[in-house]
Structure formats: C-alpha cells, structure tokens
Design goal:
The protein is of the alpha/beta class and 191 residues long. It has three domains: 38 residues; 99 residues; 36 residues. The protein is 42% helix and 24% strand.
C-alpha cells in the first residue's frame, strides 16, 4: 500500500518548465501593471500631458497639498505642483494646468481655494476668463479670491447657535410656568 501511495503522489507532482515559469511571471506582471494603471490612471496621463504653470499667492493654503486637483468650472484640468512659503512670508501655490485648457484661462480668470470640501481635501478652482482678453502666459500670477475657512465659518455661526440655545431655554421656562391643564387646553384648541 505504501508503494501505491508513492505512485499516487508522484502522479500529482507538478513540474514547471522554464517557459511555463516565464509565461506565468509575464501574466502576473501584466496584471500588476493593469491594476496600477487603473489606480494611477489620472496621474500617469497628467504626467505625460503638455502643461503650463500658474502661480497664486494666498493668505491661507489650509488643506491644499501637492497633487491636489485644479478645476476649471468643475472640470479637472490640472494639479497643484507645489505649495511653499516664500522669503517674504507669503504662501505661493504653483499649478500645472493641461495645455489644452490654456485658452480658457484669461487675464480676468480668478483662482479660488476652497477649504470646505466633503472629504476634507482643499480644492483649487479657476474661473474661465473673458475670451476677448489675452490668455495668461506660462508662469504668470493669477488673481485670487480668498474663500471662507472652516474656522471663520464656525466663528460666524457660533453666536447664532448661542442665541438659539438661549431662546430654547426661555421657551422651556415659559412652558414650565404654564399650568398643565392650560397646556392641554391649548393643545386641544390647536388640534
């Protein structure tokens, strides 16, 4: 019985030739490249696209990182190439925008940094300019419209929330001061 088991196991032994090993490695390599190309498709395509640079100086670059999307009227047209603090203590954002959108970026185009996004990533958007005006040159500085940061928004909303809390407390005190029978009568009258 022992010899028979050896024969069965010998039949199940697998030996791969060198060609089969190379073919297997090529298939695995192709699958890895396919997955990587799907994951990094946009970045890979952007790397090989013709681009032009724009610079913007902002007060607050919160949540804007290298590689963040640049949108033109909602369409992704480029990436943030660099965010840096200059020698004169200003924040400079360098953008790389696809060349095919260059005609849309004019002297009156405005860059806006959005600090309030659903995922927390800052967004950079550019408005289309007037086609009658000249295009911004490669390396030009674009005008900036500062947007409200989350901290500024919260500081503006906080007093209103405090007022609502005080009003709710006053309503609670008034309702408690009214006799329960009177409250039931008012509810019946309203119904």
């Amino acid at each position: 019985m022992n010899d028979r088991e050896d024969e069965l196991h010998a039949a199940h032994r697998v030996r791969y030739s060198m060609r089969e090993r190379v073919a297997g490695l090529l298939i695995i390599g192709a699958l890895v490249l396919l997955v990587l190309s799907i994951v990094f498709n946009d970045r890979i395509m952007f790397t090989f696209a013709d681009t032009f640079s724009l610079h913007a100086y902002v007060e607050n670059a919160e949540d804007v990182d290298d590689g963040a999307a640049v949108k033109l009227d909602g369409i992704e047209v480029g990436r943030v190439d660099n965010v840096e603090l200059t020698d004169d203590a200003r924040i400079r954002i360098t953008l790389k925008v696809r060349e095919r959108f260059h005609e849309q970026v004019r002297e009156n185009s405005v860059l806006e940094v959005s600090h309030l996004t659903v995922l927390g990533d800052g967004g950079v958007s550019i408005s289309r300019g007037d086609p009658e005006l000249p295009m911004l040159e490669d390396g030009a500085t674009i005008k900036v419209k500062e947007s409200v940061s989350m901290e500024e928004l919260l500081s503006q909303i906080t007093p209103a929330i405090d007022d609502i809390a005080v009003t709710a407390q006053h309503v609670r005190e008034i309702v408690q001061a009214i006799e329960p029978g009177t409250t039931a009568t008012i509810v019946d009258d309203v119904s």
